[in-house]
Specification:
Helix content: 40-55%
Number of strands: 11
Mean pLDDT: 90
Largest sheet: 9 strands, mixed
Order of helices and strands: HHHHHHEHEHEHEHHEHHEHEHEEEHHHEH
Strand order of the largest sheet: 7-6-5-4-3-2-1-8-9
Radius of gyration: 21 Å
Length: about 475
């Protein structure tokens, strides 16, 4: 019997139903239930962090408690079932088995572009150049999800273009796949009352709104009035007690605005549960390399985000700075991949090169294609896990793999030679190398000490649970 079936048999839904009635009593009980039916060795550090938060009543506990008491109960419970149980506790072991079985990477998450259309034209966004001529059909996306589920993947993220141009299909796919969790990066301007009601109905869709810091930074990149529309959308989502997150493309211009305690508090006040930070990538022939954050800015951003994790009730993800925790680059299907609106299967949302199109091959065949196997065979791309990326941090790596595998550019507007893309990143990579070495040395030492302490405490907690 799997984890999902065991938890269901023990009455997980009933236990979740009692959470909001007496959260301080029942949150530890739900955690104990998860511990009881999760095999030793699976997400032990993560479960330890949850137990520690509950025990200490720290900022993470404040976030958990907010989710329990302030979110719509149906949405909250579906998130627990589809994301925490299906996509992680149940899906992860299945992905590991299939990695062994098929000898290739199997993703934890699949990013999809439902459409190339967008109602905005943001500076530095390659999707803005694609126009509205390309779409993955409902049947295309439905097939990808079914193939993904067969491999153990229950987490799907929409990018674009603007995914909410396809609102009807987005919601219909949530209904068709209730076991899965869906997330969408969106500019937020198309979120309205009706869509909030649709989200409350399906319960397994989470928007991630893009915002660049303050009004000036956002409107200068996304267009005048965009900031007001996005903040209005956040108010709607918060008023409807829905889960939502924020994403920020961190540039050399907005890093001083975004990496402040005041801005983190603002995100919490807006009602965001989590925030996803992306370092600007000069993707596209017209991209401006000067927008890449400086080495000192990247260093500050990485350290500052970790500092905020220790004090703010906000879950933060740093796409580059957290590479230490995931063993380097997660692209090429190692933990995720990207499928554009033309069906091209790319190793990364920032690496527009491929040997495979989902209209011609299966998802598994795409994962076994030459470029994806080159990722599989070369990861991690650097022993310094603070230099994870084969483009931004190790700029020759991507071009080498593209040349060796015969992959072609999948840029939908103006194909970009991989050597040209990598060349734009060389100055930044050289500047980052010595700074990242110090960062990696500091973090590796801190993590080693922390892991030893956690291992001892985890063993003690296991003993206590068995005795009980």
């Amino acid at each position: 019997m799997g984890i999902k079936e065991s938890l269901a048999g023990f009455g997980l839904k009933q236990a979740l139903g009692y959470l909001s009635k007496d959260p301080d009593t029942n949150i530890p009980k739900v955690m104990a239930l998860v511990d009881k039916y999760t095999p030793d060795g699976l997400f032990e550090e993560q479960r330890y962090a949850f137990r520690k938060a509950i025990e200490e009543k720290n900022n993470w506990y404040q976030l958990i408690r907010y989710g329990v008491t302030e979110l719509d109960p149906g949405v909250r419970d579906r998130f627990f079932e589809s994301f925490l149980v299906n996509a992680n506790l149940s899906g992860w072991p299945e992905q590991e088995r299939n990695r062994e079985k098929y000898g290739c990477n199997i993703p934890w998450a699949i990013l999809l572009d439902p459409t190339s259309a967008c109602n905005l034209h943001c500076k530095g966004c390659w999707a803005a150049e694609y126009g509205n001529r390309l779409n993955l059909s409902y049947d295309d996306i439905d097939s990808i999800i079914k193939q993904g589920e067969a491999l153990g993947c229950y987490f799907y993220i929409y990018t674009g273009g603007e995914p909410l141009v396809r609102k009807r299909d987005v919601i219909a796919l949530c209904e068709a796949h209730p076991e899965c969790s869906f997330m969408s990066f969106t500019n937020g301007t198309l979120i309205d009352e009706k869509f909030c009601q649709d989200m409350l109905r399906v319960k397994n869709f989470i928007p991630v709104l893009s915002i660049e810091g303050d009004e000036t930074s956002t409107d200068s990149r996304r267009g005048e009035g965009t900031y007001g529309k996005v903040t209005h959308a956040m108010k709607l989502l918060k008023d409807h007690r829905l889960i939502f997150g924020l994403s920020a493309c961190v540039t050399s211009v907005n890093e001083p605005v975004i990496c402040t305690e005041e801005y983190f508090q603002q995100m919490i006040d807006w009602g965001a549960i989590f925030t996803w930070f992306f370092t600007f990538m000069p993707v596209g022939v017209d991209a401006v390399p000067e927008l890449i954050p400086t080495a000192e800015q990247r260093n500050h951003m990485t350290r500052f985000i970790r500092e905020m994790r220790g004090k703010m009730p906000l879950f933060t993800m740093d796409f580059w700075g957290d590479s230490q925790y995931v063993g380097g680059c997660i692209a090429g299907g190692r933990r995720y991949l990207h499928i554009n609106a033309a069906g091209d299967v790319d190793p990364c949302v920032f690496a527009h090169y491929s040997n495979a199109n989902i209209h011609d091959v299966s998802l598994l065949e795409a994962l076994q294609s030459p470029l994806f196997m080159a990722y599989h065979d070369n990861q991690p791309f650097n022993d310094n896990l603070m230099r994870p990326c084969p483009i931004l941090d190790n700029p020759g790596k991507l071009a080498e793999m593209v040349d060796a595998t015969g992959a072609h550019s999948t840029d939908l507007q103006a194909p970009e030679d991989a050597h040209d893309l990598c060349a734009k990143c060389v100055p930044s990579a050289l500047e980052w190398k010595p700074v990242s070495e110090k960062l990696w040395s500091d973090f590796r030492h801190e993590r080693a000490e922390g892991m030893a302490k956690r291992a001892e405490e985890i063993a003690q907690q296991k003993g206590a649970r068995k005795s009980a």
